[in-house]
Amino acid sequence: MTPFASISAPIPDLRIVPTSSLIPHEEHDSQRQRPLVERLNREAVMINPPIVAPIDDVGEHFVVLDGANRTSAFTELGYPHILVQVVQYGSEMVQLETWHHVVCQWSIADFLVHLDSLENVEQHEGGNLEAFGLASIQFRDDRLITISTPTREIVERNQRLVRFVRLYQKHAILQRTALIEPEGVWESHPDGIALVVFPRYRPADVIAAARERAFIPPGITRHIVQGRALRVNYPLEILRDMVTPLEEKNEQLQRWMETKVRERQMRYYAEATYLFDE
Questions:
Q1: 190: exposed, middle or buried (Cβ count in 10 Å: 0-12, 13-18, 19+)
Q2: Are 85 and 95 in contact (CB under 8 A)?
Q3: Three-state secondary structure call for residue 71
């Protein structure tokens, strides 16, 4: 636990921006958004700000790297402004990894029936779990299927990927994992019936998905940010305020940040952590 003054990680770039200036690169997760909306209606503070990166040279619009459900909830509730942490995509402080999906509480037979119903999606049996095309599916009965689509056009490609993920998002329970070893996945998820492995994404893929509104399914891209701001607990009433100008809100935010640093109320944890209150 280290004070910010003695570390190399920069102090988080927290800003208040128009909610309308944020552009997602992925669809929001309908299973997770509703609880967020209900929680925001009850709470007085914003705990964890979304992570965003500038999507244009003038900095008027931002791609949401992490926090699509939170930003969607703010939009649904009519908040004019939202607190975000701005990072520079491509810097050493931001790493793009991939989440994979464990499909739970469903049957393999039903999964295969729904998979056969997808149009413009090809199935290939066998091979290995290193995903190419849209995704590879390792079933618990050792069957392996890779799905692909002939188009390279980003809008159509991502639309077909979304339709695929919706198959199990609608009928099953979706759990995220960073593992691709089936044995470890089945041990961690006794009710899992399939492991869906996705190919690696590049920052350019994320930016293109946002610009083209060709959204990636939720829970695939995984951004690891060094110096991430958590437990911020910033007053929601300031973000709800329709009268105070944005510039004034940001001046107030900077004074708030200066107080946190001066009074040593900000701490940096370098080690990996597990959070039990998400």
A1: exposed
A2: no
A3: helix
Class of domain 100-197: alpha beta
* Buried residues in 164-184 as b, exposed as e (16+ CB within 10 A): bbebbbeebebbebeebebee
Query: What's the rounded Cα separation, in Å, for the pair 258 and 255?
Result: 5
pLDDT in tens, the chain (278 residues): 444 444 456 789 999 999 999 999 998 766 666 778 888 888 899 999 999 999 987 778 999 999 988 899 999 999 999 999 999 998 888 999 999 999 999 999 999 999 999 999 999 998 777 767 899 999 999 999 999 998 888 999 999 999 999 999 999 999 999 999 999 999 999 999 999 999 999 999 999 999 999 999 988 999 999 889 999 999 999 999 999 999 999 999 999 999 998 888 888 877 777 777 65
Question: 3-state DSSP call for residue 60?
Answer: coil
**CATH level 3 topology of 2-96+224-268:** 3.90.1530
Tracing tokens 């992490």 back to the chain, one arrives at 66
DSSP-derived pairing of the beta strands 62-66 and 22-24: parallel
Residue boundaries of the structural domains of the chain: 2-96+224-268, 100-197
Query: Does residue 207 contact residue 214 with C-beta atoms inside 8 Å?
Result: no
**Sign of the Cα pseudo-torsion (124, 129, 130, 134, in order):** positive
Would the CA dihedral through 231, 232, 233, 239 be positive or negative?
negative
pTM for the model stands at: 0.84
- Distance from C-alpha of 229 to C-alpha of 242, rounded to nearest angstrom: 25
